[in-house]
Write a structure and sequence with these properties.
4 strands; 2 domains; DUF2249 domain-containing protein; about 50% helix; four-stranded mixed β-sheet; single chain
Amino acid sequence: MGFEQWKDQISNFECIDVRHLQGNFFPGLQKRACGLSKGSGLTIIQTFEPLPLYAPMEALGFEHFAKQVGADEFHIYFYRVQETETAEMAPFRPLALLNYPMIDERLGQIAVDFWDLTWNDQKRTLPYEMRLLLSLTNAVGAGRMRQATRELVKAYIHGLDSAALDDVFELLAWNQGIGYFSSEIGPSQLFQAYKLIKTREKSGKQRSEIQQELMEKFGEKNPEVKVQ
């Protein structure tokens, strides 16, 4: 539809001020959003433009329009154009970015802009799945198995063939060494997620079923994977 078609309704939107809230406010926001009918909306007030919110809200059937009304105040209007409940399959929102405004409000904006440039800018040359795999291997090299697991799950849910993961783990064994692979990678959540994919595919499970199981076992509720 576009903002012009529903801008006269924003005065009726429920307003949620998330400035200075600590931690992940998205579950509460998602619950409220799911309870809204088509043709209604929400106004979110934040100290920076919350770019990571847009994709999961779009998955729930919302359009958005952002307006900066002050140096550290943004109003984001979400209008529901259709009713869906698919946001749970969005593989990991960058929730760690919510920590930065606790340190400094401007740092929050810088972190969000950097994330948006890295992952969403149309000028990027490498395919998204390739960048996820590079991020995965860099994370393993730095000892960040939590991040590596998240990148693997995202890559698979975005359509990466599991044969590419075979290549990745072969290269990890080569570059990191058999000893490191055996003691650190093999027992990790990263390798458990990989094994789940391979064993479920071998048993004939549909990709959609494997994706759902990945999110259930290696999603935000898993303390070894979540970032907040």
